[in-house]
Amino acid sequence: MSAGYVYILINSSMPGLIKIGRTFRDSRARARELQSTGVPTAFEVAYEVFSEDYEALEQNLHEYLSEFRVSGNREFFRYPIRMAIRCLQDLSSPPRELSSAFSAESIFHALSNKYGAWLEPYIVDVRIVQTQERVWLEITEEEEIAGYLVDQKIKRTDLAFCSGELDGTRYFDPVDSVSTNASKFLKEWCPYSIIMTTDLFHHDACLEIQNNPKFNPHTDGSVPA
Question: pTM of the predicted model, to two decimals?
Answer without folding.
Answer: 0.67
